[in-house]
């Protein structure tokens, strides 16, 4: 199946700093990518839908100024957690949909963010 | 808002038996329903998709059913193996952007 690469897999940062997470579709073009957040033993919570060349669509309750999303190309979307706080510590996962297919989404391996 | 319910309790079964996981949803039916596998610390991996006009779908040892009247999907793993131990997520997807909403998942343990 298609491959989605997410980087970094783990990151530890200090409170108040910003962290950027990259999501790349390696062998297909993705006009749409999705960003999720997952707490331990909980469901994936959709944060935002990232559209190539346009502004991301954020889910209710997600601060767009806190979680900056950029989807500058058909193979790359980035999520920047700005002014991180310990409560932002979580597992962040991206997924991408092959624009040639209309069904399954392919997920990255996730990023474990720890804010100290 | 749409809710997806999966059995939060872990499912323990013996190797070789059939594991059956349940996914129930409220409100409107999705365009299609998907099942994913997630291992600890990893992203989900797609397993099967079933559309709203389909009743059953099979792939090797996996079988999914979809009852839009009951608003329920069942996920079966036949001849289960210890390697099948993981968390299985039910996800609903809707047209117009294909936004996907996930259930919390059911943890499956297959004992040798």
Output the keywords.
heterodimer, A: 116 residues, mainly beta, seven-stranded mixed β-sheet, B: 112 residues, six-stranded mixed β-sheet, five-stranded antiparallel β-sheet, globular
Give the overall shape of chain A: globular
Mean pLDDT of chain A: 90
Record field, number of beta strands of chain B = 11
Number of strands of chain A: 11
| Low-pLDDT residue spans of chain A | none
Helix-strand blueprint:
The complex is a heterodimer of chains A (116) and B (112).
Chain A: E1 4-7, E2 10-13, E3 19-25, E4 32-38, E5 44-51, E6 57-58, E7 67-73, E8 76-81, E9 90-97, E10 105-107, E11 111-115
Parallel strand pairs in A: 2-11
Antiparallel strand pairs in A: 1-3, 3-8, 4-5, 4-9, 5-6, 7-8, 9-10, 9-11
Chain B: E1 4-6, E2 11-14, E3 19-25, E4 32-38, E5 45-51, E6 56-59, E7 62-67, E8 72-77, E9 86-93, E10 100-102, E11 106-111
Parallel strand pairs in B: 2-11
Antiparallel strand pairs in B: 1-3, 3-8, 4-5, 4-9, 6-7, 7-8, 9-10, 9-11
Describe this structure in words.
- The complex is a heterodimer of chains A (116) and B (112).
- With 116 residues, chain A is mainly beta.
- Chain A is 0% helix and 53% strand.
- Chain A is built from no helices and 11 strands.
- In chain A, strands 2, 4, 5, 6, 9, 10 and 11 form a 7-stranded mixed β-sheet that branches. Chain A has a 4-stranded antiparallel β-sheet with strand order 1-3-8-7, with no helix packed on it.
- In chain A, a hairpin with a 5-residue loop joins β5 and β6.
- Chain A is globular, with a radius of gyration of 13 Å.
- The model of chain A has no long low-confidence stretch (mean pLDDT 90).
- By secondary structure, chain B is an all-beta fold.
- Chain B contains no helices and 11 strands.
- In chain B, the strands form 2 sheets. In chain B, strands 2, 4, 5, 9, 10 and 11 form a 6-stranded mixed β-sheet that branches. Chain B has a 5-stranded antiparallel β-sheet with strand order 1-3-8-7-6, with no helix packed on it.
- The radius of gyration of chain B is 13 Å and the shape is globular.
- At the A-B interface, β4, β5, β9 and β10 of A face β4, β5 and β10 of B.
């Amino acid at each position: 199946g298609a491959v989605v690469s997410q980087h970094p897999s783990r990151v530890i940062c200090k409170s108040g700093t910003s962290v950027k997470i990259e999501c790349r579709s390696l062998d297909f073009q993705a006009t749409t990518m999705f960003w999720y957040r997952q707490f331990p033993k909980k469901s994936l919570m959709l944060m935002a839908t990232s559209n190539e060349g346009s502004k991301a669509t954020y889910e209710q309750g997600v601060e767009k100024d806190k979680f900056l999303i950029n989807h500058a190309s058909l193979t790359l979307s980035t999520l920047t957690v700005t002014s991180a706080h310990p409560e932002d510590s979580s597992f962040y996962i991206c997924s991408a949909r092959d624009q040639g297919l209309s069904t399954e989404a392919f997920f990255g391996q996730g990023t474990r963010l720890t804010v100290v | 808002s749409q809710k997806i319910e999966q059995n939060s309790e872990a499912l323990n079964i013996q190797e070789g038996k059939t594991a059956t996981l349940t996914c129930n949803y409220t409100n409107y039916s999705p365009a299609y329903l998907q099942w994913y596998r997630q291992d600890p610390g990893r992203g989900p991996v797609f397993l099967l998709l079933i559309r709203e006009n389909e009743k059953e779908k099979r792939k090797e040892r996996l079988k999914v059913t979809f009852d839009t009247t009951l608003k329920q999907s069942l996920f079966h793993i036949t001849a289960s193996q210890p390697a099948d131990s993981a968390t299985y997520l039910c996800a609903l997807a809707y047209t117009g952007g294909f936004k996907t909403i996930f259930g919390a998942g059911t943890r499956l343990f297959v004992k040798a």
